[in-house]
Specification:
Elements lengths: L3 E14 L5 E7 L3 E7 L18 E9 L2 E11 L2 H4 L2 H17 L7 H15 L5 H15 L20 E4 L4 E4 L10 E3 L2 H12 L12 H19 L4 H9 L2
Helix pairs in contact: 2-3, 2-4, 2-7, 3-4, 4-6, 5-6
Bound molecules: zinc ion (ZN).
Length: 251
């Protein structure tokens, strides 16, 4: 009996060694969202699917569905991000992007925007050589927005001031406030500044292609990065092992 064969373009978010020389892959595709794919023999050097079964490699894949499992039959590599594979800090950051993406995408639900967001983040790190903190903050916030966790940044939620001089992001409620407003509301707020607030507004509302088209002085970038990270942890109510590892490398 013929098995169903499908052709998808996908990037490897996770690759786990399993029995024999096999790998279990978590693949993010545009058409079918996140898929679990068995790559038989992918750890053999002679395997024609070995290259496509590496982390962060983006390929056109022929998958075969057998008894409820997707098997990787053939692959043609489209992009390998090989410089990123050889830089420990960038590799760790990309691993965090992959873990965050995996947690915010679903199986068998289209994920074209998340896929292009993920690939563009790797491109911004590797090819455009944007600062890691900038890519990390922009990718994290934009992916959270896509998944339905968009912070409300139009104005202070208490006094409607559009340009607070000492803005804060209340990461639990996902709202903007002035340092002096809503102080009795508890929660957890992260300090911003006019420049980091402007960058955050750009990130949540810009054209996808312009996501990384901004610059910030180091202190403002640190505020943006810290606020984005705290917002992510508060909204998702979890940490990420890969993020802890990336941060440990920065010391
Ligand atoms: Zn206010």
């Amino acid at each position: 009996m013929e098995n169903e064969r499908i052709v998808v373009k996908g990037v490897i978010l996770r690759a786990t060694d399993t029995k024999d020389a096999d790998k279990m892959l978590t693949v993010l595709t545009g058409e079918r969202g996140k898929l679990s794919v068995v790559a038989r023999g992918a750890r053999r050097r002679t395997s024609r699917i070995a290259a496509a079964s590496q982390l962060f490699v983006y390929s056109e894949m022929v998958l075969c569905e057998r008894r409820g499992w997707y098997m990787l039959d053939e692959a043609a590599t489209l992009c390998q991000f090989s410089a990123l594979q050889n830089d420990l800090s960038q590799f760790a950051l990309a691993s965090y992007f992959a873990e965050l993406t995996e947690s915010l995408t679903q199986e068998e639900i289209e994920a074209h925007t998340a896929l292009s967001l993920f690939l563009n983040a790797l491109y911004a790190l590797e090819t455009l050589q944007k600062p890691s903190a900038l890519v990390k903050a922009a990718f994290t916030l934009r992916l959270l927005c896509l998944a339905g966790y968009e912070p409300l940044l139009d104005a202070c939620a208490y006094c409607d001031e559009v340009t607070p001089q000492r803005p804060m992001l209340d990461v639990l409620q996902g709202i903007l406030r002035c340092a002096g407003c809503g102080t009795g509301s508890g929660g957890l707020s992260m300090p911003l500044c006019p420049a980091s607030l402007a960058a955050m507004r750009h990130i949540v509302s810009c054209e996808p292609k312009r996501l990384y088209s901004f610059t910030l002085p180091d202190d403002a970038l640190a505020r943006l990065d810290n606020a984005a990270e705290a917002f992510c942890a508060a909204q998702l109510e979890r940490g990420f092992r890969t993020l802890d590892y990336y941060k440990a490398l920065q010391i």
